[in-house]
Amino acid sequence: MKQSIRGTDVEIGIRIGAQNETWRTMLIWDHFDSSDDNQNYEKGLFELDYYLFTSQFNTVSFRPYIGLNLGYMNYESDAGGAGDDISESGFLYGGQAGFTVDLMDTVDLDVMYRYSLTDAAHTDHIESFVVGINYIY
Q1: How far apart, in Å, are the Cα atoms of 122 and each of 3, 42, 90, 92, 125?
Q2: Domain ranges of the chain
Q3: Which of 21, 39, 90, 137 could form a disulfide with 77 if both were Cys (CB 3.0 to 4.6 A apart)?
Q4: How many other C-beta atoms are found inside a 10 Å radius of the C-beta of residue 29?
Q5: CATH T-level topology, domain 3-135
Q6: Which pTM value belongs to this model?
Q7: Three-state secondary-structure class, residue 54
Q8: Rounded to the nearest 10 degrees, how much is the dihedral formed by the CA atoms of 41, 45, 50, 55?
């Protein structure tokens, strides 16, 4: 039986990338550890985002985007109880949509929803709501 990864704890990560006025690419490492249901995963992703347009509200720039992601994950769970431990790895792929808002000349706020399917035996998909701060140099 495949399942989605759920939990109420926070996923943390680090990302590095490059962007211009139209495109953004990022390499991402994320870690999730849910004490509520004894699940955790690590994933590495490559993301490619396309900025739909840039809109100026007074001095604030609002930029919505859509994108694709591709990566690899390791998932572990002992949520099923004795003898039901799961440890698996697999590829994942999917898409995301979100927006960035400039906070300063070199800092922006990034808000995104990411949905990724996986080929792992027990895991169907991973959904993430992501809030990040980007430093642009």
Answers
A1: 6, 15, 10, 13, 10
A2: 3-135
A3: 39
A4: 14
A5: Porin (2.40.160)
A6: 0.83
A7: coil
A8: 50
